[in-house]
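tokens incoming
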């Protein structure tokens, strides 16, 4: 559990330089542990994200009888127990800060023969779970939430799940994945369709673990009753973690950074299109495949940015990158308009409100809208902001401090460890002046 008392001071600094390796992808790390746990045989995961979120998921499976060894940093050896081999957890499963952990586990646990309870930290306890409970209930699951569809979730096992044909009301890889995971234990076919295609790691990884599945942009279908075969997973560097360095290098004059072996799944890289449309100089080098995922090195140089209207059709492909984009827009010339991004209000924090409030404190003219913001680029001043315990807002405000006219004090930064342990050290190594207050 994070200590909520960590504040940072990010002060103006010069150019950023160097080669940066950011940690493994969070989405892939969660799923790798889940599928390896349910597989027959032993799987090795390399590049596993040693973040609090993904460790919480690993702990959940240990609690359900899976042996998981950590022979080295970012490595896990998972002794799979097979599709029906999980044991009832003796106490509630704590998903920490992780929406992905809780929603995917809800789908998976709905089809078990035992009861379970999922709990989370303060932020996760405010996040909507009705979006997974509703389709899972249609499949026959018995999940009881708190009023308003909030965690904890009480899941009663021994239900007979049936496949459904479900069109998601919001574009959400977590909801899609929860349904597909329930579909593993359901009779018949489970089919999902999305309003916009979202990250397809669940589909791709199920196929890698040998489960018959068909999928394309915005849809997937599978049938229950097969088995998962152990396999080794190589986790690429997390694009969303790389994004903070990408934006920082663009904004800090004289910078040149190379980010190595970053995951380039097209459902994740919408930020690159947005930044390029704003005038950024980002080149891809050494594009290749790593463990079945496209990766490339990103070479980023400083360039002046101008405002744009962010195309709503790329919102799902950059859903986690908006806090960083808010800062890029604040430092750009002209106006940036964001719309179609109401999902930002139900992330680890209400990211529209948290970023708007913080940037306003730093002298930026910014209007909130229900599903986005209108950001008037300007001079970022010194000041004191609150990350609201949201890892991505904290790291984004650190970029604001880098290019501000004076130090920016950022409150409540401990949760950066959920997705990016070591961010502060890495940032300092490439030129940030980032101190613990
Ligand atoms: C994730 C999906 C996204 C994203 C989150 C990770 C995943 O959430 O914001 O950080 O691993 O499936 P939604 O699917 O709710 O948009």
């Amino acid at each position: 559990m994070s200590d909520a008392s960590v504040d940072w001071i990010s002060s103006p600094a010069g150019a950023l330089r160097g080669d940066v390796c950011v940690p493994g992808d969070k989405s892939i790390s969660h799923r790798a542990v889940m599928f390896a746990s349910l597989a027959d045989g032993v799987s090795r995961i390399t590049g596993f994200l040693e973040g609090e979120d993904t460790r919480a998921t690993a702990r959940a499976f240990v609690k359900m009888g899976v042996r998981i060894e950590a022979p080295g940093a970012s490595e896990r050896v998972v002794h799979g127990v097979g599709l029906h081999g999980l044991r009832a957890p003796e106490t509630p499963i704590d998903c920490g800060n992780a929406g992905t952990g809780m929603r995917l586990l809800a789908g998976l646990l709905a089809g078990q023969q035992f009861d379970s309870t999922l709990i989370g930290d303060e932020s996760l306890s405010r996040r909507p779970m009705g979006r997974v409970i509703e389709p899972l209930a249609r499949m026959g699951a018995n999940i009881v939430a708190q009023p308003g569809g909030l965690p904890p979730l009480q899941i009663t096992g021994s239900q007979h799940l049936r496949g459904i044909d479900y069109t998601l009301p919001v574009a959400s890889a977590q909801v899609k994945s929860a349904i597909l995971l329930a579909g593993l234990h359901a009779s018949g076919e489970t089919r999902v369709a999305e309003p916009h295609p979202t990250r397809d790691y669940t589909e791709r990884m199920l196929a890698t673990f040998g489960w018959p599945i068909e999928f394309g942009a915005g849809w997937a279908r599978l049938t229950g009753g097969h088995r998962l075969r152990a396999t080794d997973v190589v986790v690429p560097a997390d694009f969303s973690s790389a994004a903070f360095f990408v934006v920082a290098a663009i904004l800090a004059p004289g910078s040149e950074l190379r980010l190595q072996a970053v995951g380039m799944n097209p459902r994740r890289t919408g930020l690159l299109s947005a930044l390029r449309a704003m005038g950024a100089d980002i080149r891809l080098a050494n594009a290749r495949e790593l463990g079945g995922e496209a990766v490339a090195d990103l070479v980023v140089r400083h360039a002046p940015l101008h405002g744009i209207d962010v195309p709503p059709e790329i919102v799902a492909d950059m859903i986690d990158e908006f806090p960083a984009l808010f800062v890029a827009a604040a430092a750009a010339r002209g106006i940036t308009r964001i719309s179609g991004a109401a999902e930002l209000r139900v992330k680890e924090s209400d990211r529209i409100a948290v970023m708007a409030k913080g940037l306003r404190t730093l002298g930026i003219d910014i209007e909130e809208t229900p599903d986005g913001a209108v950001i008037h680029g300007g001079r970022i001043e010194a000041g004191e902001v609150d990350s609201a315990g949201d890892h991505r807002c904290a790291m984004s405000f650190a970029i604001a401090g880098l290019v501000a006219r004076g130090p920016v004090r950022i409150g409540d930064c401990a949760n950066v460890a959920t997705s990016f342990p070591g961010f502060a050290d890495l940032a300092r190594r490439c030129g940030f002046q980032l101190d613990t207050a």
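note: The two ends are 20 Å apart (CA to CA).
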